[in-house]
């Protein structure tokens, strides 16, 4: 009798971290499996640790190898950490993509705005609909989140049903779109759910995430009481928040001016897909300066401190059309993503110095999370009754707390895994049964580099300790043809005794060359390595840091 097919799961991103989500499900045996990918997102570079790197993406080398067995890629929703890597990585996979209408439309607009984006077809599935993708039957279950058309995925297979939650919360009064479909989730619980792969972002927070309706009410009150100009910044993709801001502007008899390309793009897609049908038309930035101060509201990109976004330019007083003055207000209707605190703090400080009143979620309920807190996690477990729960979408602490909560809620099996772990879900006892290649790719300008790339490693070192460049011209007889040239970049001018580093390094180069036997002087590689070591040693002696040193030896 043939053994039943095994159902396996492996996170390739999004576990032990928030962002860069990519999960894969496999059905078959050790030798031959069909694969289904869920989401393909990015996380964002950190200038301190990854200078010059804009985006971080999951390593998809395993899927490239399994390309002929990859049945498709399904998108839970259209946030960058869930779909931002597709344009760069899809050409390596060329698999079918499945998404609902809003996600597909936003992706199409993103491709249109990107130079030389490949043509990537997307199959549109209705919200609440089901689609067969190889041996997987995937059901899109509406859930509340901070973007239209977020969905949990019920993945129906011969081995059982897996509920992949994506990003979700329970919001009984969303201002836009459907609430989380409790009825269907309860029905799945009655059918029997093999595994729940669940969002852990807010697993450390007690209670429930407040509703978007409460935020909308707060924003109306703040905008109506404002005296001067008002600017509101939020995540561009949060269409419910955009609608709340528009409603507040209408209630206060203000015109909405949209500032920033990302915001313009989302507003256009939201109108085309019917999510802003009853919302007034917005104005372009050129109109801003012609409207009375108490009749205008600027809806801006830049809530995360992005240096090229609208709000950073306004705070630096270098935006061509939008200015703010003493007595005006800025509402940050957003949460600062960890890692962006410095950039956001800098913008807030610049605004305060201009006399602008800044309102954040510390001052009023101007933002709520799109992720479930602990009581919501307990509700979902009670509805779905999974045999196994695997926490994902969180750092180590979030995963640990979600796992602890699941055990206390009576889930029979709870398993915490890491990116690259291959987990058997069923049939039989679940557990980690292997490992698949996983890691990170860095988007460096237009080039994709792996995490060990020379450029990334060296740039990090240069950012910390500068760089020394030495050029030496030697004759074939091993004599100096001219004085060495020394160029120091990012290294202090003088040491504590007032001696210049240029002189110290030049002297070190000269004494090293003079101290070498002629045979070594005639070997460019040996000469270069000796000079490199001497330069790094002398700089370290006088500064306490060892910068990279590049030595070019020319034989004339």
From TrEMBL:
Gene Ontology molecular functions: exonuclease activity; metal ion binding; RNA binding
Record's keyword annotation contains Membrane: no
Keyword Nuclease carried by entry: yes
This protein's name: Ribonuclease J
CDD domains cross-referenced by the UniProt entry: RNaseJ_MBL-fold (cd07714)
InterPro entries named in the record: Metallo-B-lactamas (IPR001279), RibonucZ/Hydroxyglut_hydro (IPR036866), RMMBL (IPR011108), RNase_J (IPR004613), RNase_J_2 (IPR042173), RNase_J_b_CASP (IPR055132), RNase_J_C (IPR041636)
Residues in Metallo-beta-lactamase domain copies: 21-219
Phylogenetic classification of the source organism: Bacteria, Pseudomonadati, Pseudomonadota, Alphaproteobacteria, Hyphomicrobiales
Keyword annotations from UniProtKB, A to Z: Cytoplasm, Exonuclease, Hydrolase, Metal-binding, Nuclease, RNA-binding, Zinc
Gene3D superfamilies with a match to the protein in the record: 3.10.20.580, Metallo-hydrolase/oxidoreductase, Ribonuclease Z/Hydroxyacylglutathione hydrolase-like
């Amino acid at each position: 009798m043939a053994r039943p097919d095994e159902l396996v799961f492996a996170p390739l991103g999004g576990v032990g971290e928030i962002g860069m989500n990519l999960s894969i499900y496999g059905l078959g045996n050790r030798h031959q499996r069909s694969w289904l990918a869920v989401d393909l997102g990015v996380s964002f570079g950190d200038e301190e640790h990854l200078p010059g790197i804009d985006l971080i993406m999951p390593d998809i080398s395993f899927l490239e190898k399994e390309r002929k067995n990859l049945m498709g890629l399904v998108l839970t929703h259209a946030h960058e950490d869930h779909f931002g890597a597709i344009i760069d990585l899809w050409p390596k996979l060329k698999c079918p993509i499945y998404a609902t209408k809003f996600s597909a439309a936003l992706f199409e607009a993103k491709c249109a705005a990107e130079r030389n984006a490949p043509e990537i077809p997307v199959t549109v599935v209705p919200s609440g609909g089901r689609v067969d993708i190889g041996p997987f039957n995937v059901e899109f279950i509406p859930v509340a989140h901070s973007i239209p058309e977020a969905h949990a995925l019920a993945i129906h297979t011969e081995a059982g049903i897996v509920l992949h939650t994506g990003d979700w919360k329970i919001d009984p009064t969303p201002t836009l779109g459907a609430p989380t479909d409790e009825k269907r989730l309860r029905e799945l619980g009655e059918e029997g759910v093999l595994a729940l792969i669940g969002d852990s972002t807010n697993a450390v927070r007690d209670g429930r995430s407040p509703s978007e309706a409460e935020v909308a009410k707060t924003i109306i009150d703040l905008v109506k009481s404002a005296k001067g100009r008002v600017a509101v910044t939020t995540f561009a993709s949060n269409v419910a928040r955009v609608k709340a801001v528009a409603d507040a502007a209408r209630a206060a008899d203000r015109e909405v001016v949209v500032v920033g390309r990302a915001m313009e793009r989302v507003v256009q897609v939201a109108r085309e897909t019917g999510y802003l049908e009853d919302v007034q038309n917005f104005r372009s930035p050129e109109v801003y300066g012609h409207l009375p101060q108490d009749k205008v509201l600027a809806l801006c990109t830049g809530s995360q401190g992005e240096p090229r976004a609208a709000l950073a330019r306004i705070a630096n007083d270098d935006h061509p059309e939008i200015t703010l003055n003493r007595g005006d207000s800025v509402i940050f209707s957003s949460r600062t993503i960890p890692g962006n605190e410095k950039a956001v703090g800098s913008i807030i400080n610049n605004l305060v110095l201009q006399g602008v009143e800044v309102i954040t979620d510390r001052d009023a309920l101007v933002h709520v999370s799109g992720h479930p807190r602990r009581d919501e996690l307990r509700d979902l477990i009670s509805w779905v009754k999974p045999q196994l729960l695997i926490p994902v979408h969180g750092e180590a602490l979030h995963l640990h707390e979600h796992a602890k909560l699941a055990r206390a809620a009576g889930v029979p099996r709870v398993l915490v895994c890491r990116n690259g772990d291959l987990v058997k879900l069923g049939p039989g006892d679940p557990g980690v049964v292997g490992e698949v290649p996983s890691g990170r790719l860095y988007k460096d300008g237009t080039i994709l580099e792996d995490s060990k790339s020379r450029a990334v490693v060296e740039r990090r070192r240069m950012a910390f300790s500068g760089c020394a460049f030495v050029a030496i011209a030697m004759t074939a007889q091993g004599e100096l043809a001219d004085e060495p040239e020394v160029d120091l970049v990012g290294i202090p001018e003088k040491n504590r005794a007032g001696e210049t580093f240029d002189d110290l390094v030049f002297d070190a180069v000269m004494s090293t060359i003079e101290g070498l036997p002629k045979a070594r002087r005639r070997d460019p590689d040996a000469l270069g390595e000796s000079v490199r070591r001497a330069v790094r040693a002398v700089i370290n002696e006088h500064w306490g840091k060892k910068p990279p040193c590049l030595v070019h030896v020319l034989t004339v």
